[in-house]
């Protein structure tokens, strides 16, 4: 059939996050972990060795244990990671000029998850059906890692490889030094100090990765350290008043050090009474921050003799962060026609 008119060309932003199980149950965790840990970008062990371990051992024991952890942070609206991602997409849409109920919003904004739902190919299908001819892929990871950003980009390009009429694509790979992002983090800390006073040490805990991946050229560690030192400088912190740690080690290999929980225990044992802990690499609260840090690490610090453990929430829906995210999107949208008007100033 020959089309009788040219379909309208729309511009879209696709926010991408890691994904989360659909429910805090062992079967839902098994599906989620099978997809996540079956990704060769995440576990870089030869398939013939890894898949029997994953399916024969890990997926028999870990789902029930992880489900119990998820149950402890689940909200009436679902997994915190999903709730915050949806909210960030909605707020970004508002800032970029999508007015719900209008047939032709300026920029379509959708979110997708690398693992679980809504999946990247499903949302790209939906965007294409809505007329998106230009798509900006914006991961909710400020620091680039092969195990997060690259695998999300892979999922997008795998979808592209199946399209006859391909949209134009742009990718944001990182914004770890973005002034708006650093400013939003700084505001989190200064608001916390205003409410609780200053004291102790600021620990910035980032998700870890295997040390080997960094040696092979992954820029992740350097980007985490750059974020942390920019934030410390912005806050006027002196040496000894702040520290970077890495959390969530998985498996037996060496991951980036120092590890978060052993560091907090050592600090408590050295007599440090108060720690303020934040997780700048996570733009929304999730299992790794709410359970691993605010429950497990808190308990370990107190058990080791620490008195005050302050957890600072992630950026979530903080207005300064949504403003920063909007500015990052606008910068990368420049030159693309949006609603018939060029976005470039
Ligand atoms: C923020 C960046 C992240 C990096 C880098 C990262 C690397 C990475 N993660 C695993 C293994 C697991 N991570 C899990 C949860 C999880 N990881 C991130 C972010 C990064 N991961 C987030 C946001 C979450 C939370 C998701 C949620 O639903 O709230 C889990 C699942 C939970 C569990 O069973 O422990 C695993 C497993 C590896 C192996 C890795 C790098 C190689
Ligand atoms: Fe992870
Ligand atoms: Fe964890």
From TrEMBL:
Recorded superkingdom: Bacteria
Known pathway: Porphyrin-containing compound metabolism; protoheme biosynthesis; protoheme from protoporphyrin-IX: step 1/1
Listed InterPro entries: Ferrochelatase, Ferrochelatase_AS, Ferrochelatase_C, Ferrochelatase_N
Residues at which Fe(2+) binds: 207, 288
Reactions it catalyzes: heme b + 2 H(+) = protoporphyrin IX + Fe(2+); Fe-coproporphyrin III + 2 H(+) = coproporphyrin III + Fe(2+)
One MF annotation (Gene Ontology) recorded for this entry: metal ion binding
GO CC terms of this entry: cytoplasm
Lyase in keyword set: yes
Family per similarity comment: Belongs to the ferrochelatase family.
UniProt function note: Catalyzes the ferrous insertion into protoporphyrin IX.
HAMAP family named among the record's database cross-references: Ferrochelatase (MF_00323)
NCBIfam families: hemH
Protein name per UniProt: Ferrochelatase
Organism, scientific name: Aquincola agrisoli
Lineage: Bacteria, Pseudomonadati, Pseudomonadota, Betaproteobacteria, Burkholderiales
